[in-house]
Design a protein that fits this description.
Distance between the termini: 28 Å
Largest sheet: 8 strands, antiparallel, barrel
Number of strands: 9
Helix content: under 10%
Oligomer: single chain
Radius of gyration: 20 Å
Order of helices and strands: HEEEHEEEEEE
Structural class: mainly beta
Shape: elongated
Length: 207
């Protein structure tokens, strides 16, 4: 995580003769599984909060690194242990099936190229993240095995995604935006799960 903060600190402190601005952002989001190989995907809801730093380039382009805390949750339901751990279809219809529920906490560093010819803007770029923790809970759908929940181990702390989005400049201070992040990495050593995330929120320019 120290590397991620170092990269963020460098990007936010790079001097430039170009026009610069910075501010805060907050919003809500929904998270799901990019490809539910086993069971069914259920989107759940969360939020994000953080800051951004914008460096104006040429021809209505700008570079915008951000640093955010993100809370994300999602469910993978109707899955057997055979399917989950062996990544294969389960023909044993008597094997118990479970609902897996996840709550994740991340520090995110999107590095976006932004194009804004007028009040409407579009943006795209890579998104790096550090996965602080994952809380998992599984429940037997037949209620034959006690439910268990707790912090998951063997998670992959460093995550990568592609982010694309757009928005509208309401005034000199306030913007409303929509963004999709498409996960490229699995969140644990043993899981097939990669996440997508859709967020909507506001950006407030302090300068």
């Amino acid at each position: 995580m120290n590397k991620l903060f170092l990269i963020g600190a460098i990007l936010f402190s790079v001097p430039s003769l170009a026009q610069q601005s910075y501010g805060i952002k907050v919003g809500g989001q929904t998270t799901g599984i990019t490809k539910a190989e086993m069971g069914d995907n259920q989107n759940q809801y969360g939020f994000y909060v953080g800051g951004f730093y914008t460096i104006q380039l040429k021809d209505n382009f700008s570079f915008q690194p951000e640093l955010m805390y993100s809370y994300q949750s999602f469910n993978n339901v109707n899955v057997s242990y055979t399917e989950y751990f062996q990544i294969g279809q389960n023909d044993n219809t008597t094997e118990p099936r479970f609902d897996f529920k996840y709550k994740t906490h991340l520090i995110k560093l999107p590095l976006l190229l932004k194009y804004q010819p007028n009040k409407i803007y579009v943006e795209a770029g890579p998104e790096l993240a550090y996965l602080l923790s994952v809380h998992g809970k599984y429940t037997d759908k037949l209620n034959e095995i006690p439910s268990e929940d707790g912090k998951l181990e063997n998670i992959k702390h460093f995550q990568a995604a592609i982010a694309v989005g757009g928005g509208y400049k309401i005034n000199d201070r306030l913007e409303a935006g929509l963004r999709l992040s498409w996960g490229l990495t699995k969140f644990s050593e043993y899981s097939y799960i990669k996440n997508f995330n859709v967020g909507i929120g506001i950006n407030y320019n302090l300068k």
